[in-house]
Amino acid sequence: MDYQPVVVKAHARPSAAKHSAESRYWRQFKYPVFVKEYAPVTSVHFSPSKPHRYAVTAATRVQIYAPRTQKVTKTIARFKDVARSGTIRADGKLVVAGDDTGLVQVFDINSRAILRTLDSHKQPVYVTKFSSLTPTQILSCSDDTTSKLWDVPSQASISTFTSHTDYVRTGQVSTSNPNVILTGSYDGTVRMFDARSGECEMVMSQGSGEKTAVEQVLMFPSGTVAISSSGPIIRVWDIVAGGRCTRALSNHQKTITALAFNASANRLLTGGLDQMVKVYDVSSYKVVHTMRYPAPILCLAVSPDESHIAAGMTDGTLSVRRRQQKASETSSDPFSQVNMHSGAFQSFLGVGQGTVKSKVKSKPIGDANELRVESKRSKRLREYDRLLKSFKYSAALDSVLRQKVPPTTTFALIQELIHRDGLRIALAGRDDVLLEPVLRLLVKHVTDPRFGEMVCDVASIVIEMYSSILGQSPLIDALFLRLRRKVLAELKFQRELVKTKGALDMVFSLTAR
Predict the structure, then answer these.
(1) Model's pTM, two decimal places?
(2) Burial letters for 14-50: b for 16+ Cβ neighbours within 10 Å, e otherwise?
(3) Cα separation of 201 and 163, whole Å?
(4) Rounded CA gap, 106 and 79, in Å?
(5) Could you tell me if 135 and 89 are in contact, meaning their C-beta atoms sit under 8 angstroms apart?
(6) Cis peptide before 51 (omega within 30 of 0)
(7) Residue-wise pLDDT tens digits, 246-295
(8) What secondary structure letter does DSSP report for 336?
(9) If 0-12 CB within 10 Å is exposed, 13-18 middle and 19+ buried, where does residue 239 land?
(10) Is 364 helix (H, G, I), strand (E, B) or coil?
(11) From CA 442, how far away is CA 427, in angstroms rounded?
């Protein structure tokens, strides 16, 4: 009969915190590229059209980066003061930005020429955004407490909203209705305006006595729900219900300065001065992933194809995390103009495709009725199995007491020695050098629920065999004392658990009546 190797049982690890599918997805955003600017990065915006270039605003310039190379392709520096909120239009051809003098300027992204200058604000303009449904309109929000909707061709103001009483540092044109504008102010309110009447139609306030500055607002694509950040708190507003606050979340330790959706708007990303970016599932508003950055975050953006996450920080660092897209995500339409000109269309139809001869020689196949005798290769035994096969029990135990041997293997061999009545033989005749690894194993795993019972059995044998030599080796004495203290601490812990269980049973029995 052949020797049967030791069977190592698979134990469930006590605290194996595996990452969820959600966390694994966001962990794919790696390969971070850090670009150092000489001033804080106050705005990052991805172009909605391919190749999804992004505009980075820092100091007195707006730089356009290529997403593949992370290199600057264009630099717009025609500002008299600090530039703000560089935003690319949906077609990727124009850029709008404000500055601290109150000017709003529209640039051609290729020639960098100034196409329009909108001069009406008296204080710094912190927000400039194109309307996604009406690309010829621009929203601007300023520290002069006003917000304006501009008509680009005529350079005229369509509407001016004056309901706020403090700085207006955030705003957005609804993606479902070009006449609906949402703004947030340092007066602690979020207001919704109608561009047709120029009036404030809805006020969303934080509550009586509260006046925390609203740093960011964000509206869902449906236009029925809005999100705002004030200090470390995120609030969710139901616009259909008249601006009622349905949720208030506080998972950041410091002020939240950036809000962004992913491409499908089913995940919300928030960045704050606590150097953290948190990802929320908007169905439950639970945090599903957290990313840490080296400095406080001022702005955040996700590319429309969800291949890049860009974040600007207070120390002038721009961080761009990339994700390798799958082939199914990057596959394009075979009938597109680009593919038809590049030859992909012929490949799609199968035109001009030949056969490639394999360089690997095919193996000859014998007669179907031929009888084949297969030779079975013997499996190579591990070191402890070879020693067990030779009945060298003490050496087999020593081989699994070494470092980097998993405890599951060590205790599987001990179990095999117990079955063979060889555990006492393996433990006998040891000096302090050979007894030390045995005691260290017992001390380490005496409280492990996977091996606790077996540790107690081995410990009782060791104590019985070596109690007579106590006092001869300080190291062995110290290990025995550590084992005793650990057992006493575990017994005390178990007694506390029993008391807690009894108290909980009483509470549950009373509530069940």
Answers:
(1) 0.63
(2) eeeeeeeeeeebbeebeeeeebebeebbbbbbbbeee
(3) 10
(4) 12
(5) yes
(6) yes
(7) 989 889 999 999 999 998 889 999 999 999 999 999 988 999 999 999 99
(8) S
(9) buried
(10) coil
(11) 13
